[in-house]
């Protein structure tokens, strides 16, 4: 087992080994006893004016001899007696300069650790107030000089030890690698695959460029009463949604296309809670508008046949790609991707406010917050504001709903919008608020605004009860 290194104090000194005879020497270490002249330790400085290879000049009578790096105090040379201190001549220097002794090669009588030994046999004065066997100690008049010199010596020796260890062992810390390019982990307004530029997300439901299949499908859907907008539209491609909302009836065709207009992913949905037949008719019209030029007429016929069978869930193969079809009568959906093509990554969106912060702000506006935050509207109505987000992130969906007497709903809706958008935080809030307020005529709308999906729906079919809802959420697209 490797012996741990001793501290800078030699044997017999505070923090070191007890003084004693080592290596057969009679000299005793410790405070109040003078160490043998061979026993210079970490507290002495090497000769300042003589090279390590040259023997030092003998000390002057009455002066302490120069001291160098040597053995620890109390460690004598085997076979030598301890010379005296003051006024005695030093032993002839040994050959060699500074020598390093590793941990694994300790000699008998030596302290373990890295030790540097000077050729000269240094002189060790006695401790304060005591005399060693080789001579007397310092007087009181020399005590301040001894203490000051000792402090300076300890500082210098510590610096030399640090530099020596650093030179022998190298730097403790590896030089840091150059910093990697900074990448943002926050949600962006456009996916990295199509371009990753926030400018690719239209701010108010506009359409970007489109050619080929995408352009043809868009024009046919618009002619059928759909309103279209782009979630993003960049150099590599786009994500487009065409929506047709009318009260309880709604239909949408969402597709992605490459820069040359080639459609690579499609979702079609039609819902009519009042009339099952109308849901199927609207679905078939949307299927033909995008499918005849994209999939081919024969592939469209395969989907139409699958719808007629009435199966709730089925897969339909085609030369364009495989489709998944669900049919619940009043709600029909179909999705599919082009073989050999991958759909674009969707942007993750969130507001800069959490659920807890939203609820706290609504309570300050006199909302009662339990599972939802609400206020009473009129005699029996209410207005609700709600948001959902991850446990440690901002809101990814936001809803405002007012219901009750139709007149009360119409009167309360502007205040609910002001309350909700007054609390939301984020770069898209102003564009979203502008879209919602400009579509507050009581009709239903849907579209993409600044990378968000926005739905504005209302029900005024009953003269005694009505509702109005604004729903904002990030879009998902799986085909």
TrEMBL record:
Keyword match Transit peptide: no
Residue intervals passing through the bilayer:
145-165
Report the superkingdom from the record. Answer: Bacteria
Record keywords, A-Z: Membrane, Transmembrane, Transmembrane helix
User: Gly residues compositional bias: what residue ranges?
Assistant: 9-43, 71-87, 126-138
Q: Where do Low complexity bias regions lie? A: 88-124, 182-194
Q: Where is the composition biased (Pro residues)?
A: 48-62
* Positions of region (Disordered): 1-138, 170-216
Coiled-coil ranges per UniProt = none
**What is this protein's name?**
Uncharacterized protein
